Amino acid sequence: MNLLNYFGNNWKPNYDNFKYSGWALLEKIDSHETVLDVGCGFNLFKKHLGERLYGFDPANVEADEVVSIEEFDNWKQWDVVLCLGSLNFGERDIVEAQVKKAVSFGKRIYWRQNPGIGDHPWKGVEEINFFPWTIDLNYEWAEKYNCKVIECKWDNNNRIYAEWKRL
């Protein structure tokens, strides 16, 4: 099972499971800010943020655009970029290139990162290559890509929540 098939047919979101990188993010986004949701899945924030949000995802037709981050042609700068579990797959060079591109999209980036564990309850998860994010790696890559880590901590004991600000 490939990644697109897994996320298009098996995976289900649950923002209620995350104290920092779920619905609480709505409180961190000001009413005038534009938002880009990278790997938006079912585009669940759209009903709360309306036209201020643009979500893309390579595997879900609920996205505003069905496209990968590699193929996404960014045509504007966003105030906020959400990467909530979307840049967690593949080898280091693949994930780092995705991070570099995501950072270029906006001023503030919110992350939900998987520390390399395949703990999803859905069929096919055993075939997915989860990238092993660490808190230290947040600081390393943020500095490398001209960002500052505002906050980085464990969310729900099994994911990393991070907020980066582009300098």
Description:
With 167 residues, the protein is an alpha/beta fold. Helix content is 20%, strand content 26%. It has 4 helices and 7 strands, in the order αβαβββαβαββ. It has helices spanning 3-9, 46-49, 92-104, 135-144; strands at 35-38, 53-57, 65-66, 78-84, 106-113, 147-155, 159-166. Strands 3-2-1-4-5-7-6 form a 7-stranded mixed β-sheet. Helix 3 (92-104) links the parallel strand 4 and strand 5. The radius of gyration is 15 Å and the shape is globular.
- Our estimate of the beta-strand percent is 25-35%
Write down the overall geometry. Answer: globular
Q: What integer value in Å does the Rg equal?
A: 15 Å
The main pleated sheet reads as: 7 strands, mixed
How would you name the oligomeric state of the polypeptide chains in this document?
single chain
| Gap from first CA to last CA | 39 Å
| Helix and strand element order | HEHEEEHEHEE
Can you summarize this structure?
This protein is an alpha/beta fold and 167 residues long. It has helices at 3-9, 46-49, 92-104, 135-144, and strands at 35-38, 53-57, 65-66, 78-84, 106-113, 147-155, 159-166.
Topology (elements, then pairings):
Elements: H1 3-9, E1 35-38, H2 46-49, E2 53-57, E3 65-66, E4 78-84, H3 92-104, E5 106-113, H4 135-144, E6 147-155, E7 159-166
Parallel strand pairs: 1-2, 1-4, 2-3, 4-5
Antiparallel strand pairs: 5-7, 6-7
What distinguishing features does this structure have?
7-stranded mixed sheet; 7 strands; single chain; 4 helices; alpha/beta; 167 residues
